[in-house]
Write a structure and sequence with these properties.
Blueprint lengths: L15 H22 L1 H12 L3 H8 L7 H11 L3 H4 L8 H16 L1
Helix pairs in contact: 1-2, 2-3
Length: 111
Amino acid sequence: MGARRGVPQGSKRIPGEFRTKVGSRIRMVMKPYAKEKGEWAECCEAAESLKLHPHTVYNWYNGVTLPTIWNLVRFADLYEVSLDYLFGRIGVQSITELRALANEVRKAMVA
């Protein structure tokens, strides 16, 4: 059987719930900054930092498309969030919060 239209042979579609989860997490990460500057301005600023076209980031923000894994890593670094957070595997957003939790766990294990 041949490839479906628009889907290269051997590729797999991204499950809808994963796309929705990652898209909503990207929006949650960017939203506080977008409130301050406006959605488009924040997307333009992020795009400039990531060396991407503003429409690319704007599409992530609106859940139209998802970033490649490499761009997702770069996005996580830019906003100082973990990939686990973006993938919806944990509820803690910032790297700083994760470090604080890890320190608490270490202290509890020593005590």
